[in-house]
Amino acid sequence: METGCETFRDRIPRLFLGDLATREQEALEHHISGCRACADEKESYSRTLQHLQSVADEPLPRHFFVYPPESGFRFSFLRLAPGWYAAMGAAAVLAAALGLAALARVQVRSQDEGYLVGIGTPVPAGTPAAPAAPAIDTAALEARILHAVDERNRRVKLEWLRTFRAELGRAQSRLTAEQRKTLASAVSEVEARLTARVDSTAQTVLQHADASISGLYAEVTAERTRDLAAVGARIDRLAVTGAAKNNQTDAILETLLQVAESRVK
Amino acid sequence: MHDSLDSVISEGRPAMPGGAEEAQEMLWISESRRGDAVAFNRLVLKWERRIFNLALRMLEDRDEAAEAAQEVFLSAYRNIRRFRQDARFSTWLYRIAVNQCISKLRKRPPGVHVSLDSNERDSGIVAQLPPTESHERDFLIEETRARVRKALATLGPEQRAVLELKFYQDLTFEQIAEIIPAPLSTIKSRLYTGLEMLKSRLGSLQAGT
Questions:
Q1: E strands, chain A, where?
Q2: Rounded distance between C-alpha atoms, residue A185 and residue A105, angstroms
Q3: In A, residues 73-92, which contact B (CB 8 Å cutoff)?
Q4: Distance CA A54, CA A60 (A)
Q5: Dihedral of CA A3/A7/A12/A15: which sign?
């Protein structure tokens, strides 16, 4: 490593974290362009940072909402801004006034360009009223309401299906990973069992082969011995027979010689 | 009047300019200080993903991270009136989260924590399976992530916290020094030492995986 590298090597991680002054950065880049070791070091840091980025954010398992205890409602009520108290007071006064009006059977009817107010008694009928408003088409209204309800139900179902498919997809990806692990474990076990089975079978075959060969050899040896004995016996018999024939021949020749001699005499 | 929580969840809020978003956050904080749980839960919606993933990378266990995240938000809600509104809410929330995680890490017995999360894989067993086209890339990515998590787990809690805040929460050194009360030089020292250790432990990983 060249001299001066120690100084520059300490600056390399600072380069990636934006912790170098511009002049220091330029000096470092200049050094790296001519120093293979420091260039490799820079590449190594770059890879490390890339690997760190691979551990990206994961989706939330759920929301982490806070649900305060019920007594908190009263607590928050007591802490409202003053304007809210004024508004609530006004609302209470209005509600009381409406209640009193209902009790006193106050009636208000619009007529011509003004209003008739009566207390306790029905407001008398005045001049003929304006033409009645046209009748509401209840059938059309009902159809519109039903259509709106159907549309809402359809949207809810679609949303439910989307959520269900997404959850199913996530469940399947998790199951696939788990199934893969289970399958890998099962495959390993089967492989080990098969290997053991093959080994023991090979041993057994060898043992049987050894036994067979030994037996065969013993049999062949015994037969050979028997055959040799039989051949020997035959040869002996032949020898005896030959000797006997030889004796007979000798005897015949002796007799013939005796006869020949007697004729000569 | 405030919306119900369901509408808070379902409404699609458009992106807002930085100033408007901060102003909205300050409004929620003010309402939360008056005890408005719905306003506080809007803050939860905004920050829960970051806080959960901070806890997950520090604790390496989904269940423990979820528990820690819930405790962070509960603690924040209970102490919201102590939050000085001249400070940054993110700094305050991160401080609660980091302290919570470091406290949990210190309670663990010594040694590397092995998660029971199903994302952890025994690469030896899985590697025996013949790779399929559709899963090979996912397998390699998950292998890399598992090794990075194991390497991070070998760091001390304070080092892990600094790395998390710098790399994953994208904070400046000064912001980190506010969250983990320590001198700036100490923060930098922890970060560079941790990075050096990770570089040596992850050195055998191939580029591009």
A1: 106-111, 114-119
A2: 84
A3: 75-76, 79-80
A4: 18
A5: negative
